[in-house]
Specification:
Blueprint: H1 38-46, E1 50-52, E2 59-65, E3 68-75, E4 78-90, H2 94-97, E5 99-103, H3 109-112, E6 119-120, E7 127-131, E8 140-151, E9 162-167, E10 174-175, E11 177-182, E12 185-191, E13 196-202, H4 206-223, H5 230-248, H6 252-269, E14 277-279, H7 287-306
Antiparallel strand pairs: 1-2, 2-3, 3-4, 4-8, 5-7, 6-13, 7-13, 8-12, 8-14, 9-10, 9-13, 11-12
Length: 309
């Protein structure tokens, strides 16, 4: 996998949105005993380039190479390439992902009721993707897991309203987009855990989206405050409050830079100060991964507004 610049590098001036390459692997942090041991890492290395026959309908193939899995999906003539990229994964196989896909309809009330108002399902890509690793499986990871969908059944254009949404199993969907671009349509988003994914038509005003994403980050910090080292928590709260202040006073580039600083601070303190491990047993909360992923989505929306799209 090729290296790419950090999408949260400093923005000295307003930048134009561009489709971003997949993120580069970061140096691995020392493993926490009992979670990501050297022995398990060796298992992951030995699993390089594993190809398995998929068990779920609609999953044509799954190929695993190191910290990345690539799946070909097709249901009722609608197809996509799915790329799942980890910063540091153990036990990654085609089976341990628990990947499945199903067709939905644009009028499916069971799905629409879980979406925000002023959003809809695109008729050209009515697929619901689930990544639900088996609870007894070996998969665990640190940091952010990135999900990218690439399809010829949708088209990208400047101002494109399509976004990647995600939800806990059966829960409400939220925007997780961190980049998108042409070819014919490619979208990428990050998570600190796994869930359901949809491509959605977004019609809400961008300011409504940004406020909701700022609120989401504040809620995540509050919900996980007891798990974050107190001095780090205060620092993160201050940076996020400053980002909101810059946004509310229409200082968009400084707001973008504050969100970048927030993501970097979480990343720098991930591990000892901010929990950063997810595993299939669902007995750990990947706080750092959730915070960083939410910050990246807010970053995308602020760039979108800044660029006048």
């Amino acid at each position: 996998m090729t290296s790419s610049p950090d999408p949260f590098s400093a923005l000295p001036e307003p930048s134009r949105l561009q489709p971003l390459p997949m993120p580069a692997h970061r140096p691995r942090r020392p493993s926490t005993p009992g979670l990501l041991s050297r022995g398990l890492l060796l298992v992951g290395v030995l699993a390089v380039l594993a190809v398995a026959a998929p068990a779920a309908a609609g999953v044509v193939s799954v190929t695993v190479d190191g910290d990345q899995a690539v799946a070909e999906l097709e249901v009722a003539g609608v197809g996509a390439e799915l790329t799942i990229t980890f910063e540091d994964a153990v036990g990654l196989t085609a089976q341990s992902l628990g990947l499945s896909v199903q067709q939905v309809t644009p009028l499916d009330t069971a799905v629409l009721s879980r979406l925000p108002s002023l959003t809809a399902l695109p008729a050209g890509f009515p697929l619901l993707l689930r990544i639900e690793p088996p609870a007894t499986g070996p998969l665990s990871f640190r940091g952010v897991v990135t999900v990218e969908l690439y399809t010829h059944d949708l088209a990208y254009a400047p101002g494109c309203p399509l976004r990647l949404f995600s939800a806990p199993l059966g829960g409400p969907f939220r925007d997780v987009t961190e980049s998108m671009g042409a070819g014919s349509y490619r979208v990428r988003g990050g998570k600190g855990d796994f869930s359901e994914f949809l491509i959605v038509v977004e019609s809400r005003p961008v300011d409504t989206v940004i406020v909701a994403q700022l609120d989401r980050l504040e809620d995540l910090l509050a919900a996980h405050a007891s798990a974050i080292e107190p001095a780090v928590l205060v620092d993160l709260e201050d940076v996020l409050a400053s980002a909101r202040d810059k946004y509310e006073t229409n200082q968009l580039v400084p707001a973008i830079q504050k969100v970048e600083a927030f993501e970097r601070k979480v990343d720098n303190h991930a591990g000892d100060d901010v929990p950063d491990v997810w595993r299939s047993a669902r007995d750990l909360v990947n706080v750092a991964g959730e915070l960083r992923a939410a910050a990246r989505t807010l970053h995308f929306s602020l760039l979108w507004k800044n660029n006048g799209l």
